[in-house]
Amino acid sequence: MSFVDGPIAWRLPIACQTIFAFVIIILIFGLPETPRWLIQQGRVDEAVEVMSKVFNAPNTDQFIVAEKEAILNAVAIESSAPFMWSKLFHRDPLQTGWRVFLACLVLFMNQVSPSE
């Protein structure tokens, strides 16, 4: 649009982007809730149904049962110890503090690097 004068030069590109945003807004109403969120809310049967539909397998499939158990275990572990931001910087076996530092460093370098 660099060859066009007037407000259409910036309005048309923005208008074209909104088309895709509206499509996504409409499509999002057909998406089911995530199994993890459903299990956190205590709706385990609905979570199993969603996983069954996603993986096209029966509720009793070994993979579905294993996923349900893994999510239940993860939710139980997370709810046993409340989250605290200070834990991000403690030394632990997963080296969480180092990973957070590396992620921040990569994002910082992305912002600082000169664009062409």
Question: Can you tell me about this structure?
Answer:
The chain is mostly helical. The protein folds into three domains: 1-31; 35-82; 84-116, no CATH class. It is built from five helices and no strands. The two termini are 20 Å apart.
Question: Which properties best describe this structure?
Answer:
116 residues; 5 helices
Tell me the strand percentage band: under 5%
Number of strands: 0
- Kindly give the count of domains: 3
Radius of gyration (Å): 23 Å
Number of helices: 5
Q: Helix and strand string, N-terminal first?
A: HHHHH
The average pLDDT is: 89
Shape: flat
In short:
By secondary structure, the chain is mainly alpha-helical.
SSE layout:
Blueprint: H1 8-28, H2 35-40, H3 44-55, H4 62-80, H5 96-112
